Predict the 3D structure of the following.
Amino acid sequence: QVHLAESGGGSVQPGGRLELSCVVSGGTFVSYALAWFRQAPGKDRDLVASINWGGDTSYVADTVKGRFTISRDNAKSTMVLHMNDVRPEDTAIYYCAADNNYFGIIRGLPIAFWGQGTQVNVSI
C-alpha cells in the first residue's frame, strides 16, 4: 500500500512564499503520477498541479498559474509544490495524491492514493 506524507503547511502573509512537500513510501515512486489538490471549507476538492512519473510533463491550474510550480525528485521520493505570491484565496487544506494515470488525474478520474493533508493559511 502506498503512503503519502505531506509537510510544510502553516501561516503566511499575502505575497509570501511557502513550499509543501510530499514523501512517498510503500511503492515504486517512479511508477506514479503525483498531484496536489486543495479544499477550502464548504467547497469541492480541486486540482492545483500535477506531474507525471518522469517529471518532464506537468500541469498547473489557471487559478495558480504563474505563481505556483510543481517538481519531483525521484531519488528522494519527494514531490514539492512551490507557492509564490500567495493570496488569501489560497487558504485551504492541501492534499498530496498519487495515481498511475497522469491524464486521468487532469480529467477528474478517481485517485488511487491520498495523503492526510496539510493546512495552509494566508492572512494579514
Observations:
- The CA atoms of residues 18 and 83 lie 5 Å apart.
- DSSP finds one helix and eleven strands in the chain.
- The two ends are 40 Å apart (CA to CA).
